[in-house]
## 1
Amino acid sequence: MISEHASPLANLGGVDTGGQNVYVAQSARHLAAQGYLVDVFTRKDEDTLDAVVNWLPGVRVIHVEAGPVAKVAKEELLPHMKAFKLNMLRFIKNENIEYTLVHANFFMSAWVAMGLKEEIGVPFVVTFHALGHVRRIHQQEADKFPAERLTIEEQAVQMADHIIAECPQDKDDLIQYYKASEEKISIVPCGFSHHEFSPMDKACARKILGLPQDEHIILQLGRMVPRKGVDNVIQALAGVKVKDKQVRLLIVGGECEELDEETCPEYARLLTIARKHGVVEQVIFAGRKNRDRLRYYYAAADIFVTTPWYEPFGITPLEAMACGTPVIGSDVGGIKYSVKDGETGVLVDPHHPAELANAITDLLGDPSLLTEMSENAVDRVNRYFTWAKVAEQIIMVYRRMAPVTRLVRKQSQAA
């Protein structure tokens, strides 16, 4: 697997860490559980990282030197991908490895995979996680990726042996904007880990986090970047009309646990919006949290809200539903695929705070509906979206690309 900027070992919640990190980590973990040997190649961005980390039985993380050994925004990484490819090839030859296939994640990993296919003939599948054409539509001049991204994606679509789309919208976008062959695309969603996320007592979760028991709590959790629409949630808070209890918005995410206006521009922008709309006393900015703490935040909330402008998939709604928390989400991309409108939550326009406010008000005013949605949510994600089920579907894609005899290994080898 190649994931140039999103390491499975990274802390989550920052600008460049999120769903792709989880996807790569959990895919590798569950493929190894099925008996495969998996090497994950990612860029070395810290001096303290070992070149090879034996992360799990059957999974190694290979830190490839490409550019400065420091954090670099993913928008600035493309010039370093040639070094990434050369150093990856050097590692493969030095280790005398013959990989069965490569699974590229994101367009820069796909660029490397194309080079590997040309150099050593290894086939590749690609999961883009986000598409440049779609990003340009929504972000326009705010999109800082180089223009070459679109060309690379177009080439990768043609050269890939198979493409994994994360939801029906992703598949449609690949066909519409990249002229991808429908026969070459398989829809495989993201997933959640039931070992990490499952229902727990709300009062207990709030006690653990030191949150009030007598308030309605709305949760927004994820990367703190403009396209995630956190500002939309803050603006909606001002329009929520609930009389029985105080309504509190809990925002989890950011570059660090203690957010600072001077060092975190997005936090400063959101704080300004909260002040402008008179809700700053109702908002808690909790900062980044370790992954093992997230289930308590999901379980403590009455409703999980996520309203990004666009979303190739979105793992946080799955995690929230796995904890029994109904989701109000954008009617876009993967969210409209994972959230069942009216059954496990509500879908809304991501640019309409008043609509979101009404949805929050309606759900908080109907405890029985919230309970029903909670039960439906747990059932839905466990039926369709566990990482084990996702890994099974990924394996089916792999088997379409290579003979089964090359992919299935003896149990003794897996040990």
Note: Residues 404-415 have pLDDT under 50 and may be disordered.
## 2
Amino acid sequence: MDLDDLFAKNPGDPLVLLTRQDLDPLSVEELEMRRAVLESEIARIEEKLKSAVNVRASADALFRK
């Protein structure tokens, strides 16, 4: 899926702005810091996804009984 398709409805979304930011002016240190922050955010998202899947599975199991 293309990012333009994904975010077409909300062009002011911070994630859209982040993905379109020009990286050329950033130093190596700034790029490394940016990568670390994004990796941390990915880890946070993965934990939230696990939690959401577990909650859903628990709810499904409860209503199957």
Note: Helices lie at 3-6, 14-20, 28-64.
## 3
Amino acid sequence: MSMLSQADMYIAERRRLGFALRQKARHILAFARYADESGHQGPMTANLVLHWARDHAVHADPFTWATRVNALRPFARYLASQELGTEFPYGAPFGRGTRRLAPHIYSVEEIDALVAAARRLPGRYSGATYATLFSLLAATGLRIAEALQLRVDSLDLDTGSLVVRHSKSQRSRLVPLHQTGVDAMSNYLRVRARQGSMAPSEPLFLSETTGRVLRYHRVRTVFRRLVEDLGITPRGEYPAVRIHDFRHTFICRRLIQWQAEGKDLGNAIRALSTYVGHVNIVATYWYVQSVPELMAITGELFETSRTNLGDCADA
């Protein structure tokens, strides 16, 4: 079988199991086409993978090469179960394939200013829509895609919660709201009722221009204009302030507050990881080691770990 045929079979099988494989599928298919077009026959080899990752992206950097290699790793395991002699590069020949830049952490004043500016947007409903959307992101740490996918029946004011359906990794979760959030969403629903149908399956956030679901590209355009007008400049490692920084800020502020209150940070981080929809708790611990505002928490966790190890040694 050609490498492309095997790639198609692998991707189809993984997607039947519920995996999206968007970026990884593109890498796998690109590798398979490269292998077939270069005349390669037989099982996957380590040299073939390295040549594709590096030579096929000659103007990229080692991080990009490492990302390409890592994308093929599950595919290689699949091939190894089908064909003897399958090889894959050992270790990390190009270094780490993942990296995350320190985000911008909003101050309370910046969030208040953004929400206030959004509320002043022209139109009958735009102000309420964008002000509520940005407030919800700041108060819950939802991903922007999750917020824009909310439906009318996603919000339950009686229980004070949101149902986030089919979020990243196709998982769903229940997101409790603070009473202030319940009150704000209740007020927004009164505006939303005047904007269009309130059938359970209708989008919660509508575009005033189209009358349909609010799209990310439109939200991003409005957000960038507001940030520029307010003169908010990035304090992280990204070149610009981003909508996703609402999520980063929520997580960091919550950890800082729990640390100040003397909470058990191990249990608190596990709860926070579930609340924000992280598939792996490592994604939540990343903030502790990568965001300067959380360095005190890093020290506390280190001291706790050292104490626990000492207790184990004494025992």
Note: Residues 245-314 form one domain.
## 4
Amino acid sequence: MAMYDGDGAGAGGQGFFVPPEEAPHQRTFMQWPVNRRVHPDPVFLERTQKTIAAIANTIAEFEPVTMLAAAADHARARRWLSESVALWDVPTDDLWCRDAGPIFVVDGAGALAVRHIQFNGWGRKQSHKRDARIAGAVADRLGLPLLPSGLFGEAGGVEQDGHGLLMAHESSWVIDNRNPGLTRAEVEARLLAAYGAERMIWSEGVRGMDITDYHIDSLARFTGPGRVLINLPDDPDPQDPFHHAALDTHDTLVAAGLEIDVIPEPEERRVDDVDFVASYANYYACNGGIITAEFGDDEADSLAVDALSRHYPDREIVTLNVDPLGEMGGGIHCATQQMPQG
């Protein structure tokens, strides 16, 4: 990992910021899952690969998509990817490009760089030898500066509105398996510098009960300056730590003066598993489109589409069955990473 230089920006890093996700993109990056230590069941791995291909093919109808994969994996990936999806020889382990992929920043002149928050397998919980190198490999291929942040972590653990505000769960950042010895204030200063933001809203989250330590992008998302869409259970279980934490995050955001729109979690799902992540908030905003999950609950699926249509009235809302990602604890946003126009 590049050395942190103390100002949070790294050499040449001043003036860079992460634009809002809904700002125009050059392309979307994704990762091809292959690691058999991570995915020992070949049948489930194939289902997952087909799901990743379906997401990539759908996004490619709106903007260019680049799939990262080792050259040896290109032939298999091409079986399911449309010809409009480019393949780059960047070796991967798993599919979570939001967490392992490059975080693109721009400056006032439109110059691009890659901000480096070092991925370490969600606190060394998963094999990640290849994924740990992806951000640097993409920066090298694009000829962009790689700007250190002084942090270990994942972009799925922090949300930005692109206008100076961040929100995150402490559980994903102020934790010894990512940033040992750093206080919350120190982590906050580095995140603000990394994203070019001015203010941060924290809530507690949940430690040690899922691989991400409760990434916020499966719960709440900025849809504009100071505006949040949050996915909450209609009938919270007081014994469920994630329900408790979700309500705490909601109350914290309300107290911070943000505009909050609540959508319900689905009650009827194709996958009946307590660990299944059924998040409508884990959508992806691409050029002209919103790509989101449907879970087989007609009423809840429809309410989610209605909410996304309110927040993104000029975009086409496309729903996909991405159940394999939910079975692994993630969703469409987790599998994508945008490259802004600059």
Note: The chain is about 25% helix and 25% strand.
